[in-house]
Amino acid sequence: MTTPTTHDHWIDPYEKAWMVISVVVLIGIMIAVTVAGFAFGIQAPSPYQRVDPNTVTQSGPFSKPGLTDLGGGQYEVYMIGTASGWIWEPKEIRVPVGSRVTFYLTSKDVQHGFMLWNTNLNMMVLPGQVSKGSVTFEKPGEYPYVCHEYCGIGHQTMSGKVIVE
Length: 165
Hints:
single chain, alpha+beta, Immunoglobulin-like, six-stranded mixed beta sheet, five-stranded mixed beta sheet, 11 strands, 16% helix, elongated
């Protein structure tokens, strides 16, 4: 009878295969994240700027939420989410086909979520910070937006729409 040494190891072939697959998947994920971050500029969302939620509607662009035409098919929309009335201001936005719209969103009371259907725009809206995202509307139609973060008892009514003409 021989005594095992530290060099005598046996790994089941299936276990070894799954270990190799796991390492390959991890390396693939690391490569994908690196390429997405550096080659395509995809970054984790971060606040565009900070604001005082108590005074944000008193002056500046959020004092009159709405659409601004910058010319050349470029638009800006300043929006405020409010849980006290469960509304997005403005409730309706109209732009022509081919427009590039940059959304600036904030909240003056609680955390909200903003999702613009049929686009890739999906942001968290927090009191004290401005979230920014852009969309180019290539097709005419209605693009509803909703709050996807529970913000109170009337949360389900917090919606609006972008109408592309």
